[in-house]
Amino acid sequence: MIDKVITADEAVAGVKDGMTIMIGGFLGTGSPEILMDALVRKGVKHLTVIANDGGLDVGQPANGPGKTPRGVGKLLVGHQVDHIIASHLGVNPKLNEQFAEGTLTYTLVPQGTLAEKIRAASYGLGGVLTPTGLGTPMETEKDELGRDKMTIEIDGKRFLLERPLHADYAFCRASICDRFGNFMSAKATKNYNYVMAGAADHVVVATEKLVEIGEVDPDTFDVAGVLVDDVVEGEPKWQI
Fold it and tell me: What are the CA-CA distances from residue 39 to residues 36, 133, 152 (Å)?
């Protein structure tokens, strides 16, 4: 079996300016913090980020006083993000400050639609059909890649065709992962980590607990290691 364990800095070595990256988690819960730290150290710029949100800033209620930013919020501190595709942008003030300054743009996507667009890329689908957004600006505005939206009628009902969302890198967080990359995420940390694994050219998993191949029951894992390229150990214990 292949041992995929490397360091966080090695895992982000291939990330270049202008790339599109996916980041798992929900308001910092379930985000791979050691990989965000490695991206900050690397100093890569002009990223397009696909995530649920903009993470958390220092001292926000969910983050706690005196703590460092969480998730995508770490990349916003150094103005490393040019564009974000997300479903919720109202929590991190840095995101909206940078938008007001004109240094960052965003595309809002309904939360369920965002997850399905990512899943479509992971599963090799041509897109997903949803009624969400019909009769709203979502129907007439261009998508995240500047393409016109398409509507399809099936059995007398209209749907929006939402195309897949794919990235150069997907950075995910695991609670338990083996050296081949089979992993599971506990409780709320599942958010986006499962659908993003497989939706990028290169998938990296940062794990809280690393186990040997065959050490635990295979049913422990929810995502197969065949979707994972690299594994990084040492992810901090999950904190809400």
Answer: 5, 34, 40
